[in-house]
Amino acid sequence: MSKAGIKKGPVRALGAMSGTSLDGVDAAVVVTDGVEILGFGESDYRPYTPEERAVLHRALGQWPNDPGVAPANRVVMAAHRELMGRFRDVEIAGFHGQTLAHDPRGRGTHQVGEGDTLAADLGLPVVWDFRTSDVELGGEGAPLVPFFHHACARWIGAGAPLVFLNMGGVGNLTWVDPRIARPEDEGAVLAFDTGPANAPINDLLLARRGLDYDEDGKLAMTGRVETGALELFLDDPYFSRIPPKSLDRNAFPEMMSLVGELGDADAAATLTGMAAAAVLRGMEHCPEAPDRLFVTGGGRKNPVLMEMLSVSLDCPVLPVEEAGLDGDMLEAQAFGYLAVRVARGLPTSCPSTTGVRMSVGGGQVSRP
Ligand SMILES: Nc1ncnc2c1ncn2[C@@H]1O[C@H](COP(=O)(O)OP(=O)(O)OP(=O)(O)O)[C@@H](O)[C@H]1O
Ligand SMILES: CC(=O)N[C@H]1[C@@H]2OC[C@@H](O2)[C@@H](O)[C@@H]1O[C@H](C)C(=O)O
Predict the structure, then answer these.
(1) Exposed / middle / buried, residue 326 (Cβ in 10 Å: 0-12, 13-18, 19+)
(2) What is the DSSP letter of 360?
(3) Closest atom, ligand 2, to C-alpha of 335
(4) Which residues participate in ATP binding (predicted)?
(5) Residue 302 Cβ contacting ligand 1 at under 6 Å
(6) From the CB of 145, is ligand 1 less than 6 Å away?
């Protein structure tokens, strides 16, 4: 028995993720022993209502005890309780919560949501608060999905280095060498946040058109990238900083003023171009050219973004479905996988994924 009280060998683990796009909560089952992936189970999604989303938006940038946090906590807990309660025959759950603020070298990192309450509500051991111990040990506390990306590379039988690129609200990439068996071993993974991805596009569409996002890149498709604005954006020192490195959702507030004078279509095209160009700059940091780049997250459904990535990168750019994985659920699956690792005392991050001083298994375990 592990510290979470789960049996030896593979278990069905449920993971849940509420991402920086604030669109809703994903939950998915992965079958794992905490090392290898043995299979995937069912998955489900629970969108936030417009009112709930507004509560979360108001709480962005807030720290514990700030006034918007308690209402945000109620929204996050209710959505997770409802969604995760739909799953059966699960032995353990991983609960990421919702990031409200991220300042690893300053005030820390803040995910709202109470895993102990959720454990009692669901009657399951819940692993949560995944990022704090990494930050306490000098790490960025993000990204945390890279150890799961390494397991995915092995699950799909990859034989050469490849990249997983998540285009969520923020972009993050993991360069993986699947020939190295353990992710914490030297040279197995390199990971970092590439830059803003969908969050600024969503913010623009909301401000200018009252829409949640630029569906299928329809608006960007009719616009033109304003290269002056793009170059000013790329002057930010973040892009030349050696990884690991991570970002807050709203880390580039100047983006909106860079496109402020542009028409709606040009502004959308330029923000989409900025997301793609940030990835290109990120690829310069990879130790070796990858064989293929698999895109996960909502951005893979944006044909304008996918085309921009394809024309600028030297390797095939493919939606992760081409590898038989589910690009909407990868992060939720990751937190199920990481929960089992924490329960079994295995690390969840290492110096090359977050810059942490030594490999660490982050996360609190709450039993019902
Ligand atoms: N058909 C589509 N066309 C264009 N963009 C899309 C489409 N579908 C989803 N998106 C974008 O993807 C976003 C959702 O992506 P995803 O669910 O990966 O984000 P997240 O998990 O919240 O973010 P993060 O990974 O940063 O935590 C939407 O808010 C939207 O911007
Ligand atoms: C602090 C935080 O929540 N960061 C998120 C965010 O969204 C994408 C990117 O920025 C990544 O660093 C991370 O999420 C994923 C799940 C991760 O930790 O791997």
Answers:
(1) middle
(2) B
(3) 16
(4) 19-26
(5) yes
(6) no
CATH class of 157-323: alpha beta
Known binding residues for ATP: 19-26
Mind listing the pLDDT tens digit for each residue in 131-154?
999 999 999 999 999 999 999 999
The contacts of residue 67 (CB under 8 Å, 6+ apart) are none
What distance lies between CA 210 and its chain's CA centroid? 25
Ligand 1 neighbour 19 (Cβ under 6 A):
yes
Residue with CA nearest ligand 1 atom 19: 168
Region(s) of the chain under CATH 3.30.420.40: 11-143+327-366, 157-323
Q: Which residue ranges of the chain lie beneath pLDDT 50? A: 1
Q: How far is CA 353 from the centre of its chain?
A: 13
**pTM over 0.90, yes/no:** yes
The per-residue pLDDT for range 330-344, each reduced to its tens digit, is 999 999 999 999 999
46 forms beta bridges with 25
- C-alpha 176 to ligand 2 mean position (Å): 17
For domain 11-143+327-366, the CATH class is alpha beta
